[in-house]
Amino acid sequence: MFPFALLYGLGIWIRNKMFDWDVYPEQQFDLPVVNVGNLAVGGTGKTPHVEYLLRLLEAHYKTATLSRGYGRKSLGYILADSNSIAEEIGDEPLLYATKFKDTLVVVCEKRLFAIPNLIADHPETDVIIMDDAYQHRSVKPGLNILLTTFEKPFFNDFLLPAGTLREWASGYNRADVIIVTKCPLEITEVTKKEYIKKIRPLSHQHVFFTTINYGAPVHAFSGLTLENLGSLNALVFSGIANAAPFENYCERHFKSIIPLEYKDHHAFDVTEIDDIVHRFSKISSDKIVICTEKDWMRIRATELENQFKNIPIYYLPIEVSFLEKEQKFNTLVIDYIRSVSIID
To answer: How many folded domains does the chain comprise?
Structure first.
């Protein structure tokens, strides 16, 4: 795959240089635009980091999220509402719309087209958070947040298809903030310093370390949480980029698990749900079905959810937490928004 990776890399290098040399223009807007993205393909934790920003900002600013809406079956500019489903806007935007009622959720494959429309439709918007737009350089964010995982940081990766990078690792230099995600809780100061040394942050760049926290399983229909997991046998299914952390958590907390993995953003069909229900029926006793929050977004409000009506099905919510310097990160984000916004 190495020769193909080099050919791919050449094309990406030329494209980025066209932006660097202003052959292709980068549009900057008058209101604050924060981007959360990565260099690699999937699995870096963009969704919980966007949610972190929404929790930080929603109470004080009229906030909007802008995503491509990966996996949706629609095209064009769509503003989510109470009737939106994953097929129309994608699972991640639906998750934002479901959890953050005061946030505007927009999907559009062309960000440069979407932002003026969003501003025209909702001039009260104070800040836009772009989800996964690090390579979409036609819009220049005022604050660019780059995510890279502890397990496979960009400095140990290579270009597609030999590795998982969408562009050369040197693309990190466009970031204002670099977050090493999915860190183990026991990470040492020595390891952090080694990572920072290998990242080689520029003088203006800030490096942070975060980890994933799983909440108590939530019943998909009642919203009630589940405690005392250790006596239960769980059928665990997921359609995410990296299922290992989710499955490892379930393996540690349930009596036993039967894992089923599907591709990222997988669109489940009736046959697959029938198979899940059938496998569940074979478990003798003390049993539940559990999936990720994003997986349930693709099932809820569709005909598929009816197949789970008589089954104890739960989803596992996740959040990110900073291992240190959380207040520094929060202040950095707020200070940026205040430096651009006129509302303060």
So the answer is: 2
Asked whether residue 259 is domain-assigned, the answer is: yes
Token output for 69: 């809406």
The answer to whether 169 and 154 have CB atoms below 8 angstroms apart is yes
**Residue 297: helix, strand or coil by DSSP?**
helix
301 by DSSP, 3-state: which? coil
Do residues 160 and 280 both lie within one domain? Answer: no
User: What is the dihedral angle through the alpha carbons of 152, 156, 162, 165, rounded to the nearest 10 degrees?
Assistant: 70
Q: What is the pLDDT of residues 173-221, one digit of tens each?
A: 999 999 999 999 999 999 999 999 999 999 999 999 999 999 999 999 9
Residues 180 and 262 in one domain: no
* Nearest Cα to Cα of residue 41 among 121, 139, 158: 158
**Is there a domain that residue 250 lies in?**
yes
Q: Torsions phi, psi of 180, nearest 5?
A: -85, 115
Write the CATH number for 230.
Answer: 3.40.50
Q: Same structural domain for residues 186 and 303?
A: no
The reply to whether 278 and 302 lie within a common domain is yes
**Domain housing 268:** 216-316
Pairing of strands 218-219, 313-316: antiparallel
- Quick check: 170 and 164 in contact, CB under 8 A? no
Q: What is the mean pLDDT of the chain?
A: 95
Q: Bridge partners of 148?
A: 180
The amino acid sitting at 98 is T
Same-domain check for residues 53 and 142: yes
Cis-peptide into 161, omega within 30 deg: yes
Reference 241, options 100, 92, 99; nearest CA is: 92
The model carries a pTM of 0.94
Cβ count near 310 (within 10 Å): 8
Q: 326 in the Ramachandran plot: left (φ > 0), alpha (ψ -120 to 50) or beta?
A: alpha
